[in-house]
Amino acid sequence: INEIADLCEKVGADVQSVARGMGLDGRIGNKFLNAGPGYGGSCFPKDTLALARTAQEAGAPVRIVETVVAVNDARKTRMAEKVLHALGGDAQGKTIGVLGLTFKPNTDDMRDAPSLAIVPALQKAGATIRAHDPAGMDEARALFEGVIWCDDAYGTMTGADALVIVTEWNEFRALAMDRLKKALKAPKLVDLRNIYDPETVRRNGLEYWGIG
Predict the structure, then answer these.
(1) Which of 28, 41, 88, 177 fits 204 for a cystine, CB–CB 3.0-4.6 Å?
(2) Residue 88 and residue 90: Cα distance in Å, rounded?
């Protein structure tokens, strides 16, 4: 679905509409058709790599699984590029607020989280990162350098040139648009989980970038 989202962006389609149509097929279903910044966690990355390696050693390579692994790795770096695009291609001297660091909500698990690729890439591009995660802050502190840690979502966005949602915690689903616009230095929201309606965000005077 992430590759379908990329295609949607190129041809002017809406990945969420496409996903609803795909999900009507009972052989596919709608449970795993949410486009985003790539999968992480302790199971899927490990299991796909193990399957690919076992297949290679047995002389029966699983090319589709190998491609899934490669595409997912590249996906996370591309999300940083999306943020840079929102900033006009230049993050030097900019401040970026990042909401969510764990690989999924309701856990402190940072294993193979997309943020592990996104945050360093933005720092390498010259950005200062302000970040908050409801449960993963302790784990994240040991994995990132130079990040400004914030106590809540609104503190994270204060003075930022863009706000990026990386993990779809419930706490981030109902941010007050007026407070967001007032807190941000530049009214830019990059929603890597598509948890906000683009038109609603834009009606509130903010620029919006989603997935697909």
Answers:
(1) 177
(2) 6
